Amino acid sequence: EAIMVGELANRMSEKVADVVKALMQNGIMATQTQTIDADTAELIIEEFGHRVVRVSDSDVEQVIDTVDDKEEDMKPRPPVVTVMGHVDHGKTSVLDAIRNARVTAGEAGGITQHIGAYQVTTESGSVLTFLDTPGHAAFTSMRARGAQVTDIVVLVVAADDAVMPQTVEALNHAKAAGVPMIVAINKCDKPEANPDKVRTDLLQHEVIVEGLSGDVQDVEVSAITGQGLDELLEAIALQAEILELKANPDRAAQGAVIEAQLDVGRGPVATVLVEKGTLRQGDIFVVGEQWGKVRAMENDQGKRVKEAGPSVPVEVLGLNGTPEAGDVLNVVETEAQAREIAEYRQKAAKDKLAAAGAATTLDQLLAKAKADENVKELPILVKADVQGSAEAIIQAMEKIGNEEVRVRVLHSGVGAITETDIGLAEASGAPVIGFNVRANAPARNSANQKGVEIRYYSVIYDLVDDVKAAASGLLSAEV
Ligand code: GDP
């Protein structure tokens, strides 16, 4: 950690000439634009009678309000629902059917925006929040990052297919997270539908539906005809009532990022699901390694809102960088605090990446040493505009390769290519792939200096073709 002499003088509100003089007295010749290390800086700061402030984890915790809420301040909040299940069993169709049913029933001409989550009101008046990214990849990655936002899982099982591998995975994830489940037996419009097979299949995985004297609610639905969807919504509302979900709306807001992207016109945009407190226009916040000030918020209907309470998803504008899905947002009091925490976290992440980079190089050395196994690896780094694209690319990359060559995604993330990415790429001899994102200026300079290759793509097929070509090149070059 180093600081420029001019910057140091500036932060202490001292004259540059005085700082240069003090340095000289300590035997260091430095001009205004030269940098000195942190220890020297600390010495000088103390000589001038100032206090040294180095941010630490515990400082971060102090600034962020983690005080437990009093019972009397807790108010009921809507449940947050995630839809999971085997591929093609109708997760997307069920989510779409629920959303569409609501638009026609609600405000005529209302346009639902895709912001990664939406709210519906059931016929009996309960409000439910749905995460609009089906599948357990999103659920687990959010959980892994400490953002467990899901209160209820809807497990979609197709009645013409019954329990499949990803059904089992999904129910295991729900169990591991301790989240209650409701089974939506889908595609009941099909003549070959056999809902009872779904029920008995589930028994083997210790999911016992009410009809078989268990306590898991099950509803027969069809995303195509709309059959049973209202019943499903009421089942969710009932489950939510049992859970007695509550949050304190009158405190500094905390939320989780559901989706984030770099929007050409609007800058970084994040969909945040408020967990507690109320997020308001003008609030200053930290979110993962980024910070910002809420410039504007839009709800799932594309309407401007001035505030958002617990379980409400909103699109937030006014970020200084693009956070990642699963990052936690906390409102803080001052811009200085927000910036300090974000910078501290960026540095911590950089240190961690550097360590990971070193480990990767070791891995590769080991891989090379095991030449008899004959597996060659093509490492790459992926940065994409949205989490969904990043995940799709990782999946596509994992499919390339054979017994001799493998593509390995060292790191993936959302947002512009940064110097940190270039650093890791250099350490591992990997190219950096930008999918609908560019490298910022410092990253471009650093890539030029270090000879790291950056490639831009906007079509996954093009990327797959090029990586395939590179993989076979790797084969022929070294055989
Ligand atoms: P996902 O992969 O779980 O998100 O599944 P999709 O929602 O993409 O659905 C997979 C296929 O099943 C699509 O062709 C849908 O049209 C079809 N599908 C989904 N729900 C139903 C349903 O209730 N009835 C029938 N007949 N087809 C459905």
Automatic annotation (TrEMBL):
GO terms for molecular function: GTP binding; GTPase activity; translation initiation factor activity. Residues 76-244 form the Tr-type G domain. Belongs to the TRAFAC class translation factor GTPase superfamily. Classic translation factor GTPase family. IF-2 subfamily. It comes from the Bacteria. This is Translation initiation factor IF-2. GTP binds at residues 85-92, 132-136, 186-189. One of the essential components for the initiation of protein synthesis. Protects formylmethionyl-tRNA from spontaneous hydrolysis and promotes its binding to the 30S ribosomal subunits. Also involved in the hydrolysis of GTP during the formation of the 70S ribosomal complex. Keywords: Cytoplasm, GTP-binding, Initiation factor, Nucleotide-binding, Protein biosynthesis. The chain holds residues 256 to 734 of 833 of the full protein. GO terms for cellular component: cytosol. It is found in: Cytoplasm. It comes from Salibaculum griseiflavum.
